């Protein structure tokens, strides 16, 4: 099979070595980008009079035909060394030796850097779009279940009552930061490496800015060595993906917990669950569990590419062939996780009665008592001690905070008045958290309106 480099070699490449070094199985995803880069490169060669205009037209026509074959799944990959070889081999089969002019002023080193950047630019746009879709779903569910009260947790212990919608909107905020990271990384991906050659530039009179413009890049790589050896953009996107998956994994963990009999806050729709091959009573939360598991694979890819690049001398090294397989899998995981959650979340069913009941357990309105005393000019630390003693007294007498009487409260402070009794109701507690960004219905409603405008 055709090799782009073996003219000086006396021996044929060992068959096992050929198989070991081939990257075609993983490179195939980049084929359309290789064609796009080749078309732009050909047009630049003609513009700079390195090849004739009529030659360029024939090459571009054939490359477009290859592009259509790829799009329709009709392109025949053979025993090619890599995707670059496959495209060039097909080109020469179509137009003969004229196709051999395509590689003028170009190396596979700057080709692969270009293909990866074009691929990553597309994936960033896809991920941002999918995050936005999921955000809209979160907003839709938050609006639908706007006034459901549940216990809030710190250390997984009952803390203070909170609106379920407020909890959901917290994940919307996380996803917005994720979008910001992907958007920000786009500016550093949007740099064209084509024309750097093997890493040292070329003596031929090329126009790198022209090629970059055709391909939609806003910048041209300023150092040829860096252009072919930089994989920072993959590392950065892997990092952003790992953080995004961490957020989805946290959401998944809570759904798994809340779906359990111990919590019983929500029920997963049967179309998103499986059963047990042994235990007929089971309905397993597969989707959130798998997303937790797949998050580990994304973390692994981030560490893989950091390890891959950490000790490579300039410029290109064959190690860098291994940057793609795990990265492609990571992109698949990220997009499929966002997509499945977009379908999964709207179908969860809340057990509102259980959530409300549990919101009252753990004396979650104790802090409201403290803040009540603060409004009566009692120093916070003293108020905290007073309420602590009240809780100790109630525990000893087997009573709940919601059952306490005004006379009992007055035994601990004469600052308590009749209006204190409404302060220990969970509904009042939630309603009173009206500080900006708080869990009060008023603040949550305002935040929902803000998000509707932002995501419109």
What is the helical fraction, as a range of percent? 55-70%
- Which class best fits the helix and strand makeup? mainly alpha
In the predicted model, the low-confidence regions spanning at least 5 consecutive residues are none
The tally of helices reads 19
Distance between the termini: 54 Å
Number of strands: 6
CATH class of the largest domain: Mainly Alpha
The CATH H-level superfamily of the largest domain is Fumarase/aspartase (Central domain)
Outline type: elongated
CATH topology of the largest domain: Fumarase C, Chain A, domain 2
For the CA atoms, what is the radius of gyration? 31 Å
Write up this protein:
The chain is mainly α and 456 residues long. The chain folds into three domains: 15-104, Fumarase/aspartase (N-terminal domain) (Fumarase C, Chain B, domain 1); 113-357, Fumarase/aspartase (Central domain) (Fumarase C, Chain A, domain 2); 361-455, Ribonucleotide Reductase Protein R1, domain 1 (Orthogonal Bundle), CATH 1.10.40.30. Helices cover 61% and strands 5% of the residues. The chain contains 19 helices and six strands. It has helices at residues 15-21, 24-27, 31-47, 53-72, 83-95, 108-144, 164-189, 208-214, 224-229, 232-259, 286-309, 325-344, 352-359, 366-375, 380-397, 406-410, 420-423, 426-432, 441-455; strands at residues 149-154, 157-163, 191-192, 219-220, 266-267, 349-350. It has a two-stranded antiparallel sheet with strand order 1-2. It has a two-stranded parallel ribbon with strand order 3-4. Strands 5-6 form a two-stranded antiparallel sheet. Helix 6 (108-144) packs parallel to helix 12, helix 6 (108-144) packs antiparallel against helix 19 (441-455) and helix 11 (286-309) packs antiparallel against helix 12. The protein is elongated and about 100 Å long. The two termini are 54 Å apart.
């Amino acid at each position: 099979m055709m090799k782009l480099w073996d003219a000086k070699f006396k021996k044929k490449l060992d068959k096992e070595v050929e198989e070991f070094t081939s990257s075609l199985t993983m490179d195939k995803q980049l084929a359309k980008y290789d064609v796009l880069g080749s078309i732009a490169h050909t047009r630049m060669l003609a513009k700079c009079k390195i090849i004739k205009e009529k030659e360029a037209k024939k090459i571009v026509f054939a490359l477009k035909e290859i592009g259509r074959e790829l799009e329709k799944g009709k392109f025949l990959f053979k025993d090619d060394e890599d995707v670059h070889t496959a495209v060039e081999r097909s080109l020469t089969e179509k137009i003969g030796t004229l196709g051999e002019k395509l590689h003028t002023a170009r190396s596979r080193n700057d080709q692969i850097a270009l293909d990866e950047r074009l691929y990553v630019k597309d994936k960033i746009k896809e991920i941002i779009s999918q995050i936005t879709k999921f955000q809209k779903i979160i907003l839709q569910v938050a609006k639908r279940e706007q006034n459901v009260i549940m216990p809030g947790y710190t250390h997984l212990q009952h803390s203070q009552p909170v609106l379920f919608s407020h909890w959901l909107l917290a994940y919307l905020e996380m996803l917005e930061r994720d979008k910001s990271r992907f958007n920000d990384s786009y500016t550093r991906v949007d740099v064209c490496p084509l024309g750097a050659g093997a890493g040292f530039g070329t003596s031929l009179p090329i126009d790198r800015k022209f090629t970059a413009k055709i391909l939609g890049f806003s910048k041209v790589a300023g150092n040829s060595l860096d252009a072919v050896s930089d994989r920072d953009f993959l590392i950065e996107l892997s990092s952003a993906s790992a953080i995004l998956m961490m957020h989805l994994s946290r959401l998944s963990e809570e759904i798994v917990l809340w779906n359990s009999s111990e919590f019983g806050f929500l029920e997963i729709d049967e179309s998103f669950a499986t059963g047990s091959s042994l235990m007929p009573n089971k309905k397993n939360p597969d989707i959130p569990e798998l997303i937790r598991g797949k998050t580990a694979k994304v973390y692994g890819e981030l560490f893989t590419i950091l390890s891959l690049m950490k000790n490579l001398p300039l410029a290109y090294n064959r190690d860098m062939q291994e940057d793609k397989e795990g990265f492609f899998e990571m992109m698949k995981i990220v997009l499929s996780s966002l997509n499945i959650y977009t379908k999964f979340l709207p179908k969860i069913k809340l057990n509102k009665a259980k959530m409300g009941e549990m919101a009252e357990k753990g004396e979650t309105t104790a802090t409201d008592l403290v803040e009540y005393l603060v409004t009566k000019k009692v120093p916070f630390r003293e108020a905290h001690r007073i309420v602590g003693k009240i809780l100790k007294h109630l525990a000893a007498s087997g009573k709940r905070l919601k059952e306490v009487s005004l006379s009992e409260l007055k035994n601990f402070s004469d600052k308590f008045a009749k209006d204190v009794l409404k302060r220990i109701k969970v509904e009042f507690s939630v309603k009173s958290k009206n500080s900006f960004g708080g869990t009060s219905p008023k603040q949550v409603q305002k935040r929902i309106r803000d998000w509707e405008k932002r995501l419109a």
